[in-house]
Amino acid sequence: MLNYVQIKRLPGNEDVHLPQKMSELASGFDLYAAVEETVTLNPGQRALIPTGFSLAMPAGLEAQIRPRSGLALKHGITCLNTPGTIDADYRGEIKVLLINLGQEPFAIARNERIAQMVFQTVPAVELTIVDELSETVRGSGGFGHTGKN
Ligand SMILES: O=c1ccn([C@H]2C[C@H](O)[C@@H](COP(=O)(O)OP(=O)(O)OP(=O)(O)O)O2)c(=O)[nH]1
Ligand SMILES: [Mg+2]
């Protein structure tokens, strides 16, 4: 089923590319930096990078902001809060929280592809408060409980 998501270019960003799939079956739409001037991230530094657009998606969808593996591999650039969560009722500008985990400064220019946006379905869930939970074999074992191999 095709989901229709509305996208609005924000004023002053007519020159910034809208999110784009770079291949036919790509999961993500690549996101372009809408920085007014080049932003340089020094090693260990983070910055909130604007994209120049907002979205309205139907209830039951979310968008995730994920790193680009090429930037991560070559430059140590990733999304600090990956995957970033875009709520269906958010109407503000989509922003990308990048961090430089590399060893060299990294410059982010306007219209550079900085991250990708993947849409996901979110099941409708209502929490039901109970006194006892159903039993399982695992029980409360976790965090390496099943061993190494
Ligand atoms: O990488 C991101 C993450 C979030 N957002 C926007 C959309 C999202 O709907 C909103 C809130 O994000 P989140 O719930 O992750 O942040 P919060 O710290 O819980 O803020 P809030 O109290 O506003 O929900 O911020 C972005 O633009 N980029
Ligand atoms: Mg929140």
| Strand arrangement, major sheet | 2-11-6-8
Q: Which fold name fills CATH's third level, the topology?
A: Deoxyuridine 5'-Triphosphate Nucleotidohydrolase, Chain A
Morphology call: globular
Name the CATH class. Mainly Beta
Count of domain modules: 1
Helix content: under 10%
The secondary-structure element order is EEEEEEHEEEEE
Low-confidence stretches: none
Helices, by number, come to 1
What is the CA-based Rg, rounded?
Answer: 19 Å
Number of strands: 11
Quickly give the structural class: mainly beta
Distance between the termini: 40 Å
What is the averaged pLDDT score?
A: 97
- CATH homologous superfamily grouping: Deoxyuridine triphosphatase (dUTPase)
Largest sheet: 4 strands, antiparallel
* Named CATH architecture: Distorted Sandwich
Q: List each distinct ligand once.
A: deoxyuridine-5'-triphosphate, magnesium ion
Protein name: Deoxyuridine 5'-triphosphate nucleotidohydrolase
Keywords: Hydrolase, Magnesium, Metal-binding, Nucleotide metabolism
EC number: 3.6.1.23
Catalytic activity: dUTP + H2O = dUMP + diphosphate + H(+)
